[in-house]
Design brief:
The chain has a single domain, classed as Gcn5-related N-acetyltransferase (GNAT) (Aminopeptidase, 3-Layer(aba) Sandwich), CATH 3.40.630. The protein is globular. The protein has 6 helices and 8 strands, in the order ββαααβββαβαββα. By secondary structure, it is an alpha+beta fold. It starts with a strand and ends with a helix. The chain has an 8-stranded mixed beta sheet, with helices on both faces.
Length: 179
């Protein structure tokens, strides 16, 4: 599974042999990522990613989710994908993160736009959602730049290590994206 985003950006399935690369990106960005991602502290060694990457591959194959690596100039620098896919309702929920060194370059906006295009045109989705922490300004800029509609603020939606935080729910419908 590959989605070409541009000359320098590609989304593709991460392979088990890349577990050390994935760990290094997370480890090098641990402080920044842990602020908004509840799983970061639990990933303490590269070998933990092997079973997770296998699970991602199985879920991708079953079309229950689609977790893809973001490769910038050939190097793994984050992930972007559908955390969940509801086939019956034709709905997907996008999640993403990017190494700090590559933020501010338009990489994530381009990757998410390409994923949305793929979701609507190739997967037949009707609705795509993005959920981001209310105070996570960097993450919220993505759906806002892509002209998603904010539908709600969900109180105490996610638990982050020692506290709950509110999240904003954004949505894009196929007919909105394609027009």
């Amino acid at each position: 599974m590959k989605i070409r985003v541009g000359d320098a950006i590609e989304l593709k399935q991460i392979q088990v042999h890349e577990q050390k690369d994935l760990f290094k990106v997370v480890d090098d960005n641990r402080k920044q990522l842990r602020e908004w991602l509840p799983w970061v502290d639990f990933m303490k060694k590269p070998e933990q990613y092997g079973p997770i990457i296998k699970e991602w591959t199985e879920m991708n194959d079953a079309r229950e989710a689609m977790t893809l690596g973001i490769y910038y100039e050939g190097t793994l620098t984050g992930t972007c994908g559908f955390n969940t896919i509801d086939g019956l309702s034709r709905r997907g929920q996008i999640g993403y993160w990017l190494a700090e060194e590559n933020t501010g370059k338009g990489i994530m906006t381009a990757a998410v736009a390409a994923l949305i295009d793929y979701g609507f045109k190739e997967m037949g989705l009707h609705r795509i959602e993005i959920i981001a922490g209310v105070n996570n300004e960097k993450s919220r800029k993505i759906p806002e730049k892509l002209e998603f509609t904010q539908e709600a603020v969900m109180k105490d939606y996610e638990f982050l290590y020692d506290h709950y935080h509110d999240c904003a729910l954004y949505r894009m419908l196929k007919m909105e994206w394609l027009t």
